[in-house]
Amino acid sequence: MPRKEHHVVPNPNGGWNVKRENAKRSSGHYETKQEAIDAGRGISQNERTEFVIHGKDGKIQQSDSHGNDPCPPKDTK
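^ that's the sequence the OP posted. Answer follows.
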């Protein structure tokens, strides 16, 4: 089963979008990256998805898991 993801990506017309993986439309448009991150993190936590933050160049800068991680770290205790 593929993992579900939400992404913070730059909008070509300015600002930042929060988009679900493979969605045609964004879940929201924000003027600043921080506003998009805050809103996207809430959406991702609510829907238990992976949360991926991109830079202006489109490269992934950070990723957080808010759902069922397919490769959780092993407990070292």
